[in-house]
Design brief:
608 residues, mainly alpha, Sodium/glucose cotransporter, 2 domains, two-stranded antiparallel ribbon
Length: 608
């Protein structure tokens, strides 16, 4: 990299820290300001922040690599989850905001009350979701960032100096030093400005990332002949090129791993995405009202699935023309950056990838600390009786604790990958209960604990009885999909059986939840008869399904239309355009009915 590129990167880092100082005063007024930005976010800011957080530093490398090696259809691994997120837009975005909670885990108190079982469940999830899974994510993105820096910057691998830490020593390389500067900057502005700083740096990071990705894609597309029509001809002359590379669906010549993965993603893997979780819920809880919460998640879905991914796919597929032989496909994207981008633009692109890393870290820190403070320290360690300044100080110390734990976890490289797979199966298995606890009065804290325990046990057993198929030490068939399906069915059967046996009549907590949330649907029919005067939007579920189906048609129609146009597949572009227009029209007519009556936020019920 040229010194001008380094200056651009430095300006970005300083700007991110500057935003932290800018919002310092607003964020340090209360824990609500620190963790949910005083519930003041517009749909655009909240939705863009979600998109920026999902953009990890290695995401463009991964998308480009699978697009060039397997084909465009391999992106269904990501596209399939859109079905679930769209369901979340119309069934859960407004409900999350209606709870007026500070964190996702506080929902346990809202739904089940303050009984001992609910308290135990809440504390358990603080340390599994808020600490363990959170730190695993930070460790994984830190390791990925190291690979990105090594690929992009061609830095010397020799250590600059060695740090002695008692029983062992650490060689500090240029890569480690850059990660420390980036991570330290993220920690600094996160602790200074809370969620305010996180979301506004996310906005800057997203704009930078999209700018860099689009510039690179346009330059590559133009050079390959995409605008003049010579691109397909050039691709066809690449050694080993197959027409399936430009296909939007698997070949379906036989039922192999690619086809099983496709059916898994489109068929059921998206279930776990419907209720929302983690930082997505945090952003929804931080919006001005229910309408902004719904629109924030809708904006995320459109931007993430329709707009963001195509620049990476274009660069990945067309890299075959310029680098037909690559031992490591993950290097395709960095090599295209080095080949096409001049001084200055390269700095913007590198800064955008570094920004992706910081965006993930700052969100994980604020979100994880919110669990520790709001759901453990304040309710169970006497934090509610102390000053807001004291709680804010503990919040910042919690962030530093999370950083230390993440650094320790990052030393276990191989185990992190295995844990990610296990977690993916676990959350898919919990999907049906995560939905039912909102829409069925029989849900209880005990039932959720049974679902959690059975999911952990069945996940472990699935690794024993459904092992991956390997040949000569190489993975041939990944049994991730079959494991997820078996676990989902098994866990659902267990928790439904337990709920039917133990919840014979509505509990006081379920009745209270129904009255606060005004949820309609067949799962609340019994309580609705007992309390006919409780205000309820009876058409909410019906309109929700209409919006869900039409939005799926609109989003997938728009996504495929854009891709078909880029790769000159005009028949497919015409069909997808029709689907997009019909879906968009139905959504436009139905969504106002769903939003009607949800403008006023629910007031938080005082603690007993």
């Amino acid at each position: 990299m040229h010194w001008i590129d380094w200056v651009i990167v430095a300006i970005y880092v300083l700007a991110a820290v500057g935003i932290g100082f800018l919002f310092k005063k607003q964020a340090n007024q209360s824990t609500d300001d620190f963790f949910v930005a005083g519930r003041s976010l517009s749909w655009f800011i909240a939705g863009t922040s979600i998109v920026a957080t999902t953009f990890a530093s290695d995401t463009p490398l991964f998308v480009a690599a699978i697009s060039r090696t397997e084909g465009i259809f391999s992106n269904w691994l990501m596209w399939g989850t859109a079905i679930g997120h769209i369901g979340g837009v119309f069934f859960f975005a407004r409900l999350w905001r209606r709870t007026h909670a500070v964190t996702e885990i506080e929902f346990i108190k809202v739904r089940y009350g303050e009984n001992p079982t609910a308290k135990a469940l809440r504390i358990f999830k603080v340390f599994t979701d808020g600490v363990m899974l959170n730190c695993i994510t930070m460790a994984a993105v830190t390791l990925a960032m190291g690979k990105v820096i090594s690929s992009l910057m061609s830095l010397p691998s020799k250590p600059i100096f060695t740090v002695s830490l008692g029983l062992f020593s650490v060689d500090v390389t240029y890569t480690i030093l850059i990660i420390l500067v980036l991570g330290g900057s993220a920690v600094l502005y996160s602790t200074l400005s809370g969620l305010y700083g996180v979301v506004y740096t996310d906005l800057m990071q997203f704009c930078l990332a999209m700018l860099g990705a689009i510039i690179l894609a346009v330059m590559v597309y133009k050079d390959a002949g995409g605008f003049t029509g010579g691109m397909i001809t050039r691709l066809s002359t690449v050694p080993g090129y197959k027409k399936e590379i430009l296909s939007f669906l698997p070949p379906f010549k036989n039922i192999g791993f690619q086809e099983l993965t496709f059916f898994t993603c489109v068929g059921f893997f998206w279930w776990g995405k419907i209720p929302g979780s983690g930082y997505m819920v945090q952003r929804m809880l931080s919006t001005k009202n229910e309408r902004h919460s719904l629109l924030a998640l809708l904006w995320y879905v459109f931007t993430n699935y329709v707009l963001r991914v195509w620049p990476w796919i274009v660069v990945g597929v067309l890299s075959l023309i310029y680098f037909p032989y690559l031992e490591d496909s993950d290097t395709a994207y960095p090599k295209m950056i080095g080949l096409f981008l001049p001084i200055g633009l390269k700095g913007i692109m590198v800064a955008s990838l570094l920004a992706a890393f910081m965006s993930t870290v700052d969100t994980q820190l604020n979100w994880g600390a919110s669990y520790l403070i709001n759901d453990f320290y304040m309710p169970y360690l006497g934090g509610n009786k102390r000053s807001q300044k004291g709680a804010l100080l503990i919040s910042k110390l919690a962030m530093l604790l999370l950083v230390i734990v993440a650094i320790i976890i990052s030393t276990f490289v191989d185990q992190v990958v295995d844990v990610y797979k296990f977690v993916g199966i676990f959350f898919t298995a919990m999907a049906t209960y995560s939905i039912a606890r909102w829409y069925w009065w029989r849900a209880s804290a005990g039932t959720e604990i049974v679902a959690l325990a059975s999911s952990i046990i069945l996940c472990a057993l699935s690794y024993i009885f459904l092992p991956d198929i390997k040949r000569d030490g190489r993975l041939v068939v990944d049994m991730f999909g079959p494991r997820a399906l078996v676990n989902c069915v098994g866990v659902t059967v267990i928790w439904v059986w337990y709920a039917m046996r133990t919840q014979r009549k509505p509990s006081a907590a379920s009745i209270d939840f129904y009255q606060k949330m005004r949820i309609s649907g067949p799962g609340w029919k019994l309580i609705a008869k007992l309390y006919p005067d409780c205000p309820q939007v009876k058409s909410e579920v019906v309109n929700g399904f209409i919006c869900w189906g039409s939005c799926v048609a609109f989003v997938f129609g728009a996504m495929i239309f854009l891709g078909k146009v880029i790769f000159h597949q005009w028949t497919g572009a015409s069909v997808s355009a029709i689907v997009m227009v019909i879906g968009g029209y139905i959504l436009y007519k139905t969504m106002p009915k769903l939003l009607h009556g949800s403008e006023e936020p629910m007031q938080r019920v005082p603690d007993p």
